[in-house]
Amino acid sequence: MSTIELPADVVAYLNELASDIASEGGLEWQSVEQAMRDAHARRRGFANEMMAGRTKRAQMIRAALASTVYLNIRKHETLDRFWRHAEYIDSTVGAS
Measured between alpha carbons, how far is 79 from 25 in angstroms, rounded to an integer? Predict the structure, then answer.
């Protein structure tokens, strides 16, 4: 049996669908195909809500996401600065 390697974004989306199906009660009362269609519809509805940004929930999630992205950027900038400083110290100490 051969293995198919899926792109990371496809795997992430399938994991989201699986989580959605599990949170809605699993497959006890419907087929896999119907559960996937329903989960996809819920994900699409949420994506549309986020794009429109009109609901309080979308506004709160957008703010939280923006904060998370900003903090991650700042963290990486700080770490880069730290490593550059450490490399500079190492190069000046080694030169003496």
Answer: 43
Confidence of residue 21 (pLDDT cuts 50, 70, 90): very high
- Written as one letter, the residue type at 70 is Y
- What are 43-85's pLDDT values in tens digits? 999 999 999 989 999 999 999 999 999 999 999 899 999 999 8
Straight-line distance from the first to the last Cα atom of the chain, in angstroms, rounded to the nearest whole number = 62
Q: Which of 47, 46, 37, 45 is nearest to 17 (CA)?
A: 37
Helices (H), 1-96: 8-23, 32-52, 56-95
Q: Are 20 and 42 in contact (CB under 8 A)?
A: yes
Query: Where are the domains positioned within the chain?
Result: 1-52, 56-96
| Amino acid (1-letter code) at residue 96 | S
CA distance 79 to 86: 10
